[in-house]
Amino acid sequence: MQKPILILGACGQIGTELTMELRSKYGADSVVASDIREGGEALMASGPFELLDATNYDAIEDVVMHYEIDEVYLMAAMLSATAEKFPMRAWNLNMNSLFNVLNLAKDRKISKIFWPSSIAVFGPSTPKENTPQNTIMEPSTVYGISKQSGERWCEYYFNKFGVDVRSVRYPGLISWKTMPGGGTTDYAVEIYHQALENGRYKCFLKEDTQLPMMYMDDAIRATLNLMEADVSTIRVRSSYNLGSMSFTPQEIAKTIKAHIPDFQMEYQPDFRQQIADSWPSSIDDSYAKKDWGWEPKYDLKSTTSEMLKNLGGK
Ligand code: AKB
Question: Which atom of ligand 1 is nearest to the CA of 182?
């Protein structure tokens, strides 16, 4: 039987879908959702929920003890674009929340952690194409610095204290259930909403900016596969590269036009262009493939069909 799971940051873009998936897999009462604010109706009605600040160690410990939590998924974070505006708040949230769960595991109050990293750990000096698992990493954003530091700490806690912490470097994630907030790859979600509502979209990145992206169903599947993988198969304790598709704003617009022929795209790059320019354009995820059998299912065409079908029917 699955021991109780706690999700910190359950109301965000990934947390919402992860909570629902874990609940359908392990039963609603085995999955405690938590966040600093309440989430959407479906999430709130689907099982136990606690108002919880991921930077408050004592409050997390109380919930862990109360529900006899065994695994924690730490999904609370400030993303790249917002973090540039609030560097210290981003650093405090992204690092303190991670230390809280790592220390709970070090003290054997929980036994397993999932913590998301990001393609933001890479920087302008990293090889851009097919970026390898192990390569030059000099992130130039506040968010990237926090994620890269987090990776180092995860590996350190594994080596030093035997903490079973698992992680993937998510690319930009595309989903229709919950909006992303404060990321550089958010355009690839906004574009579908705007295409359906107004038939046009003003993109904050240049037309030829190629970034690694992934449909949410693939991201959730990867997360669960990694968490279920036998401990002996996991060679990477910092964070696994995770790949699926790569595309430019111009290419996503073309797939939308195939469904909505009058769709119009304009380009007005802002400060997020510089962030995007510092990230890889494609990812080598051969370690994830080899170690725990990762295989993506969605490409750009099928992602666009799913997004327009589901948002159109909302
Ligand atoms: C962001 O754009 O900040 C995130 C990410 C790539 O981690 N979506």
Answer: 3
**Per-residue pLDDT tens over the stretch 213-243:** 999 999 999 999 999 999 999 999 999 999 9
Structural domains of the chain sorted by starting position, each given as residue range(s) with its CATH number in brackets: 5-171+214-241 (3.40.50.720), 172-213+244-313 (3.90.25.10)
Query: Looking at residue 163, what is its pLDDT?
Result: 98
Residues catalogued as catalytic? 143
Ligand 1 atom 1: the closest Cα is on which residue? 183
Q: In this structure, which residue's CA is closest to atom 7 in ligand 1? A: 118
Residue at token pair 């909006």: 179
Residue 45 to residue 57: CA distance in whole angstroms: 26
**Looking at the whole model, is its pTM more than 0.90?**
yes
Mean pLDDT of 176-199: 97
The best mutation among 170, 179, 190, 213 to test binding of ligand 1, ranked by most ligand atoms within 8 Å of the C-beta, falls on 170
Taking CA atoms, 78 is separated from 91, 122, 160, in Å, by 8, 17, 28
Rounded to whole angstroms, how far apart are CA atoms 128 and 114?
27
Residue 28 has pLDDT above 80, yes or no: yes
Distance of CA 214 to the CA centre of its chain: 10
Closest ligand 1 atom to 180 CA: 8
In testing the pocket of ligand 1, which one of 142, 167, 185, 239 has its CB within 8 Å of the most ligand atoms? 185
Tokens matching residue 309: 């079908």
Cα separation of the two ends of the chain: 36
Residue 314: pLDDT over 70: no
Helix (H, G, I), strand (E, B) or coil at 94: helix
C-alpha 114 – ligand 1 centre gap (Å) = 17
Q: How far is CA 210 from CA 10, 120, 280, 282, in A?
A: 29, 14, 8, 8
Mean pLDDT of 94-111: 98
